[in-house]
Every structure is written in structure tokens, then in C-alpha cells.
Design brief:
alpha+beta; two-stranded antiparallel ribbon; 6 strands
Length: 232
């Protein structure tokens, strides 16, 4: 049992600085090493990290000490749950690979080099910039409640609402504070980009002398530029 976090958006090749922050934090924390790190990251569409229950409890205590209460206790009316196979397509396969990103090959060294050059590789699972109903790219309309799911048309939005998003979005419609998300367990709720930025700002002051705070300072600092993260 433990906690996992995944960034909201998959990082693109133009976001090298974000990936470098993430990689530095994961190497420092021991989550990645030089022999397996790149291979592991090659399959990561959305930036992940994790910790056990006791580490998460310690982290939450640190966050509650160094982040302002008005941020921790501000209600977010429509906080979305992490989309899954039932309420959002996963968009796996070569047809969804971003332009310029190489396919995985049998050569581990070549894979690592590809990751270093492109800084993102593999399937987008899911690609939040595609229509949740028909998978067309560059969808521009968002669900008016959760502000996460995108659609290319009203017809697609209506279809997806009936097929599963209604249940997900209604659950998230309750006023839900950052403090309740952090203390609430493995619910896969969304922590917004602004909240991630506030957490990173708070952890910055203690991260030099605190390995746990250092790891998550770098993580929240990175994902604040990727639409926030889901925690579960």
C-alpha cells in the first residue's frame, strides 16, 4: 500500500527543463538509477512518483506546516477524478505518438539516447488534448464542471457524458479542499497546477535539509507546469 502521483499532462519534447527537474528529483530520491531509470521513464506518458504510507503522512505534515491555510482550505467546487479506461479513452498505439518521437526498439542504449534527446517517448495514456469521445486531436472545448476532459463538439460531449463522465464529474462536484485531498487516501483526485505551485513554494524552504521534501519539491515544481497532478 502506498501513494502514487501522475502529472495531468504528458510532457512534450519542448519541455526539457520540466523533465530535467523531474529526473533530478527521482535520481536523488532513489526512485530511478542509471541502469533502469531511462528504460522506466520511456514508458511514462505522465510524470509519476510514489511513496509508502508513512512517507506520505510525513510529507502531508510538512506541507500543512509550510503552505498557507487559505490555500489548504480553499474549496475547489469541481475537482476531477483521474480519468480511467471507463471514462476516458487511453489512446494507445503508434497513431497517437506525437510527431518526432521515435518508437521503442530492442536496443536499450538506443532507447536511453532517444529519451535524452526527445525527453518523452511512448504511448500517451491518456492524451488529454484529444476528444474524450472520438479521439480527434487538438480538442478545444472542456467539460464545464471539471475543466479537465476535452471535446471536439457538443455531440461528443453529450455522448461521453452519458457513457461514463457523468458519474465521475458528479462525484467531483463537492467542495473539496487541498487539505482533504492530501489526507483523504487513494482517491485519484486532481491537485490543480496552482496548488502544486503553492506546495512547491512551501517545500522550497525546507528541501535543502530534508530528502523527502526535496524529492517532492522537485516533483510538484515540475508538475505545476503540466496542469497539476492526480494522487491515489
Amino acid at each position: 500500500m502506498g501513494f502514487e502521483l501522475h502529472s495531468f499532462d504528458a510532457p512534450g519534447a519542448h519541455q526539457e527543463s520540466i523533465i530535467r527537474k523531474y529526473m533530478r528529483a527521482m535520481f536523488q530520491s532513489g526512485d530511478l538509477d542509471s541502469s533502469s531509470g531511462f528504460s522506466f521513464f520511456a514508458f511514462a506518458a505522465n510524470l509519476p512518483t510514489n511513496c509508502n504510507n508513512s512517507q506520505w503522512a510525513e510529507l502531508v505534515r510538512r506541507i500543512e506546516r509550510c503552505v498557507d491555510a487559505d490555500i489548504l482550505d480553499a474549496p475547489v467546487v469541481h475537482r476531477c477524478f483521474k480519468p480511467n479506461e471507463q471514462d476516458y479513452s487511453l489512446f494507445k498505439g503508434e497513431q497517437f505518438r506525437p510527431k518526432g518521437m521515435p518508437a521503442m526498439g530492442p536496443d536499450t542504449a538506443a532507447q536511453a539516447e532517444s529519451v535524452r534527446k526527445i525527453m518523452c517517448i511512448g504511448d500517451i495514456t491518456p492524451d488529454y488534448n484529444r476528444c474524450a469521445a472520438c479521439t480527434k486531436p487538438n480538442a478545444t472545448s472542456r467539460c464545464g464542471k471539471c475543466k479537465v476532459i476535452k471535446y471536439c463538439s457538443r455531440d461528443c460531449q453529450a455522448k461521453h457524458w452519458k457513457s461514463g463522465h457523468k458519474k465521475c464529474c458528479q462525484k467531483a462536484a463537492e467542495n473539496c479542499t487541498l487539505r482533504s485531498v492530501l489526507n483523504g487516501g487513494n482517491d485519484w483526485l486532481h491537485i490543480t497546477a496552482n496548488e502544486c505551485e503553492a506546495i512547491a513554494k512551501g517545500l522550497r524552504s525546507i528541501q535543502q535539509s530534508d530528502p523527502l521534501a526535496r524529492k517532492f519539491f522537485h516533483y510538484f515544481d515540475a508538475v505545476s507546469n503540466l496542469g497539476g497532478c492526480f494522487v491515489g
